[in-house]
Amino acid sequence: MKLHLGKIAATAALVAGMGTAAIAQDYPYRDITTAVVWGAGGGTDSINRMIMAEMEPHLPVSINVINQTGGVAGSNGMVYVMNQPDDGYTLVGLSESNVTAAVQGGWDQRFDYWFPFIVGGSPDLISVPADSPYETLADLVDAAQAAPGTIPAAASGAGSIHHLNLLAIQNGADAEFLFVPYQGSAPGQEAAIAGEVALVVTSLAEQAPLIEGGQLRPLAMLTPESADIAGMTVPSAFDIYDGLDAHLPLSQAIGFAVHNSASDDVKEVLVAAFEAAMASDTVAEWAEANNYVLSGASGEEASAIFTRLESTFAYTLQELGATEVDPASLGIEAP
Q1: Tens of pLDDT, residues 157-213
Q2: Which of 7, 33, 142, 203 has minimal Cβ neighbours within 10 Å of its Cβ?
Q3: Helix 161-173 and helix 299-319, axial crossing angle in degrees, nearest 10
Q4: Which residues are within 8 A (CB) of 188 and not within 5 positions of it... i.e. 6 or more apart?
Q5: Contacts (Cβ under 8 Å, ≥6 apart) of 334
Q6: Does the pTM of the predicted model rise above 0.90?
Q7: What strands lie across the sheet with 178-180, from one edge to the other?
């Protein structure tokens, strides 16, 4: 009996020692999981699967990407990751749209809960159906100024980045359109092609196949830079209307994040792998092929970008009467 008890004690000591050794190992010593808050095949999902594959060679473990969808503004996925340990083994794949989750009642945290990494995003542009009478952005704005609030425009749902960009061009060009919300970019683009609306504001990545297929005609980029697509140069709205820099650009910010409370060691490892991946030819080629502009911001730099987006989105939604929570009560300052 004594021998039996001795064996049990020895085994227990061995297991305890193994546990201590595991804890002492450098991060990461087991696989990482990235939970994307949006559905499979979407922009956030595609970017996360691409960047995680490029980060893997710079880590001693694999990164598994899953989808944890649902909730308000992707809140289900964020809450899921929030409830995991802040040890760096569960990341969240997210986008700029998630900054509205708190003011819409999806969760009770500011976006600075995260330590974010921004891969990039695709710039927004204004396009019209291929058979539209509006040949230029000036034609469209002149018509809107002549008949304010009568020209229907699609820009996804209220408070989306596309809607905010529509509001920005209205403010910058002193024109008023009739905003028609749709449940996503694809339905809004389909509405433009069908003639239900006169214009659509979505991203170049989303519009590219329709422009190349001759179904949409691009009028202007909502960025300081022009863009080349389908053998044509799409001019910058900044070159057409002075003062747009007071309202634009508002760009997508797609990437991933770890708990901000994670250790410095975890953050340093992830930053190093992320920067190495972002410097690769594969990422550059992917971005060019898919009409994305790369960022590479992480940590404080990325947080500053998300803080600006959070403020702009939150107070715009409040003005539209679409908030459940007062942004000021969360400590979100007005833009």
Answers
A1: 777 888 889 988 998 999 999 999 887 788 899 999 999 999 999 999 989 999 999
A2: 7
A3: 70
A4: 154, 155, 156, 162, 180, 182, 197, 200, 202
A5: 311, 315, 327, 328
A6: no
A7: 178-180, 152-154, 199-203, 124-129, 216-221
